[in-house]
Chorismate synthase (Simplicispira metamorpha), 1456 residues
Amino acid sequence: MSGNTFGTLFTVTNFGESHGPAIGCVIDGCPPGMALSEADIQHDLDRRRPGTSRHVTQRNEPDAVEILSGVYQGKTTGTPIALLIRNQDQRSKDYGDIAERFRPGHADYTYFHKYGIRDPRGGGRSSARLTAPTVAAGAVAKKWLAAQFGIQLRACMTQLGELPIPFEDWAHVPNNPFFAPVADVQRYEDYMDALRKAHDSCGARIRVQATGVPVGWGEPLFDKLDADIAYAMMGLNAVKGVEIGAGFDSVAQRGTVHGDSLTPGGFRTNHAGGVLGGISTGQDIEVSIAIKPTSSILSPRESIDIHGQSAEVVTKGRHDPCVGIRAAPIAEALLALVLIDHALRHRAQCGDVVPPVAPIPAAL
Amino acid sequence: MSGNTFGTLFTVTNFGESHGPAIGCVIDGCPPGMALSEADIQHDLDRRRPGTSRHVTQRNEPDAVEILSGVYQGKTTGTPIALLIRNQDQRSKDYGDIAERFRPGHADYTYFHKYGIRDPRGGGRSSARLTAPTVAAGAVAKKWLAAQFGIQLRACMTQLGELPIPFEDWAHVPNNPFFAPVADVQRYEDYMDALRKAHDSCGARIRVQATGVPVGWGEPLFDKLDADIAYAMMGLNAVKGVEIGAGFDSVAQRGTVHGDSLTPGGFRTNHAGGVLGGISTGQDIEVSIAIKPTSSILSPRESIDIHGQSAEVVTKGRHDPCVGIRAAPIAEALLALVLIDHALRHRAQCGDVVPPVAPIPAAL
Amino acid sequence: MSGNTFGTLFTVTNFGESHGPAIGCVIDGCPPGMALSEADIQHDLDRRRPGTSRHVTQRNEPDAVEILSGVYQGKTTGTPIALLIRNQDQRSKDYGDIAERFRPGHADYTYFHKYGIRDPRGGGRSSARLTAPTVAAGAVAKKWLAAQFGIQLRACMTQLGELPIPFEDWAHVPNNPFFAPVADVQRYEDYMDALRKAHDSCGARIRVQATGVPVGWGEPLFDKLDADIAYAMMGLNAVKGVEIGAGFDSVAQRGTVHGDSLTPGGFRTNHAGGVLGGISTGQDIEVSIAIKPTSSILSPRESIDIHGQSAEVVTKGRHDPCVGIRAAPIAEALLALVLIDHALRHRAQCGDVVPPVAPIPAAL
Amino acid sequence: MSGNTFGTLFTVTNFGESHGPAIGCVIDGCPPGMALSEADIQHDLDRRRPGTSRHVTQRNEPDAVEILSGVYQGKTTGTPIALLIRNQDQRSKDYGDIAERFRPGHADYTYFHKYGIRDPRGGGRSSARLTAPTVAAGAVAKKWLAAQFGIQLRACMTQLGELPIPFEDWAHVPNNPFFAPVADVQRYEDYMDALRKAHDSCGARIRVQATGVPVGWGEPLFDKLDADIAYAMMGLNAVKGVEIGAGFDSVAQRGTVHGDSLTPGGFRTNHAGGVLGGISTGQDIEVSIAIKPTSSILSPRESIDIHGQSAEVVTKGRHDPCVGIRAAPIAEALLALVLIDHALRHRAQCGDVVPPVAPIPAAL
């Protein structure tokens, strides 16, 4: 209830601080009998890991995960899976400066007033480092979704600061540090280099997609599939907007255009983004999120200190100039966690429903 | 867990179908001792009610609410408040046509495949009519928020189809059928008249705002205030996008611009939309949502029937050509429900926290 | 979270006060496609109903239930089932006397101090009348458990005040007003008549049993099947003790005796009461509960008033001299609600588990 | 939802297996600002620890706890507190024998059929070893309850097998290995020595008490304080019965006797055990639980193997001949967890209720 557990049937309870001894999570509700090892999880952790290019924070964290429970002889047992990641490269001295000052655009101020106390080292609990356990849990969810339903998740960057990134091919995504679906990223390299020199930061837009989701997942009236996706994505650090399918463009669309036609051979379009009435249609789930620019920047900012007095803030230390760059694997993980939760919820209530006729294909 | 309960501490369990005998909800967790009568609730229900202009559905529903429990001698007792609204004007014959065909863009198809059975009368459970109990519960929440914290909620339309609506003044909102913050709405009247004649529908964009929210509401890591707002708004029928503060514009903003400066006299800007790190800052909560065009339209559409065969669909009956027109009071109610829930959650965990220094004002 | 919802996947949200306009509940999570009508529910409501013999309260309530939602053409649709029971025979004048005084052994005092306000009419929210919606919801659960698994639930009285009731046969239970498993109940009739004349009340002990529960229901570590049964039963008005299987007798048993032997043909004994490690064994679930004597009695009692001053209390009005007499159908309903919830939880997580070998029979 | 999280506002998510690398828990919802160190927790862990006398298992576990998060500069920050206990003395070879056979009275059989897979080493997830993290979390709860309300918790053994243990004084409890409230425990030492020689085991009865609980904690209708206590206690390994106050004795009591009289100077008796209508009265909370004999014994037992064939089982390895002996600190911890949860729930809904008059004292 204090907001550190994600999900209802497949739950992930996250703990840790950026510069504490360890971070991690406890997964409860994982179906038994699935093969699982650290290697299944490490791959996605490595995609999210800091220090992999000059465009992200240079903090050196191997992010090696240890499975503490819930797996016996290489298989899940149905009991809680505890995942532990020890923090290695905490340089808390870097943060002495901001222990007494609030960074504009940062959670410093709100944590301080909510709790009357905060761990300022590296952002403490509000650090994006806490997305690592989410990625780890998402890897477990992904494996199950793929094995049971053939569901695949992927994400890419579609805008970097002012620069839209055209979609060329998913195949390019793993080949550049931006998760950009284009062959040539020189333009974005240059943009980021200039930004760092300017001691500034920028935002990004990320597209997330799930293919293979069957029709029928999602709950009316409130825990709609798209509502839970919006909750998951807006809860990711720095996200300020979420769209499903046509998103904000649907405002200007006519009903004759927006509604996706159904044919025996499949849907003609996917403006819905794979969700109608809060329930999956069987089409691809399409999500887009807006990530704001990093608030921890080297440029001096006007602010106040913890005594309420005016104070200039300059954030040294190691920070991502665009947190959106590492957001793709995290967004995939969050979507996976939403999907597995609804898969289990569907099975609970409608496990024995035999649809009167077969669903139509995802697309013509 | 089947998604018909909203909230965690102030919970609203919704029930009913568009053309069943009644709709309603049960509120659990309302603090005791607050004066409450049907009149407190009816005002907002009347703002959402159908039939109030030619631009909305002509279904004639008084939407008169009855309090069945939880109030004694005019005051809440702390026990569940059950609210009942009898359906009056069900013309189920209007819907005979679509009982066997799926409307493109509608929940028909997904409900049918999820449950293997669906109530097709008026959209059944997926009808926007089910937002009435939400509005009723929101009215209770609003009253408490106003009494305890002076919090005010309001919403207005900022775009109708292709037409952006400039912001002139909140005072205009109650004076036109569009909840538009402008003095002259002739342009929007004409637009809607043309749309109806074209047997088509359009979307809308709605802005929702809460003032007076104190600093410190919202939970890390997952039940962030903005995450819960996104969940609430995306769960509203036809919503396809949600923004907090600068929203998608923040992608192209630089960090030096986006981060709201703090001064002893208040914040300089509010790009954050009143939320940092998932916790309220004390500034206005600013939300924007995208509503898609109504899927029930008179124009013939390509679709299939429940046997999987090709079928043309024409939706007769009474429908809103722009569901966004009545969305403002619903969006307010949803925001109120999110806020009261977090108010109580804050009180539970941090009820005795005395912030070391007073928060700064909402704005300079 | 305010405690008026029972269950996690099959949830029952209860509302109402003894002398308010109505009581009822909303069931969420009922699987779709099950035939359901008011008649399915009314039978159990009639078993619990007041006024059926001279040994229970003479309040005249038909307890006629109305299904407001969630059923279409005689079948559950998977959406919330709202059940409404209008109160008919409220004689609030009977209670004028106790509006300002606290009955010893009653919830008057605790409600008053918890909420600062209470509805004193007929016990308000704390009245045993609020078990009627539970019985109604339990009837829905029972129907599903019987249809899906052949599970049967039954309960009987095993002690009335000082009088133990020997077990003769389940067949006798419906033939006497005590739910006693004996042919001749004259002794208990006489006992109750004497008690009423003495203006006193007594307790009772109830046995509840479920047959046909498959092996594997119940969650470690906390939501064990027996833990949830204990929660359900102890939450029933006036219950002060709960036992599973051998219960308190197991304290004096040796391990060589208590542990139920397994054979390929079935279990030899059932000291466990059908639960091991919190998970059902496939044997009968056996529960026993202790119900205290009614606190509302005609004999004068020493107490205080709402101003904290000494006051004598005599409870007029219509009360059950032994609330345990009507407890059997309620206890069955609660056990049914626990079981259906765990049935769905099991299906969610372990829905595709194929046990390596067939379970052994319930008993040799 | 898979049952490894305890509580609603102060939640404890437990993980681990008896012979896995580690056990532990994550506490979420702890109020911020409370001084907390490992030493605060270790004391209760040491009371529960194995190997402290010849009457308990000889497994050698230091049970040293590490705080991984949620504490900064010696104070709780309001974020999750992760507690880790590494397993040290796993001798899995001891359990080779029972990997393929089900111990009568043990969870072996039910886990196997529920999940289709189980970790048999030392009972895996069903081991009483998993109560260690509960005790650790309970220590955090106890500290807060003592600091905020002066609440004290204690427990003692009141029956060992067939031997009732008379209550002499709480002061004796820490001075003997049985948590017995008597000065001379020779009789119980002899009893246990004989039992071990007989290769058998026995049950125990434990009394748990909380003093200083204010009036008003507990939720109607379902999450009553006593219901949640029953849930907590019945969920403890080997518990088969729970009583509140007079418990099963209340069946034979008359209403004129059972109902505790109120006077301006305090309650005259406490048959209610500190709970009326599911809400605390301000009197001592009094609970009694029945613990069955250990199922892992050296005497040969009739059973079956995992292929469904007849098999004799002899449980070697290190086991408690009476698990009840170490139950006292665990029962205290569980009661503390229930109380802190209801303390926070009360604060959430009724945080600003000012009772019209002061409550009466706990006792005359």
Remarks:
- Residues 327-350 of chain D form the longest helix (24 residues).
- Chain D touches chain B through 19 residues (CB under 8 Å).
- The longest strand of chain D covers residues 152-160.
- The CA atoms of residues 56 and 320 of chain D lie 5 Å apart.
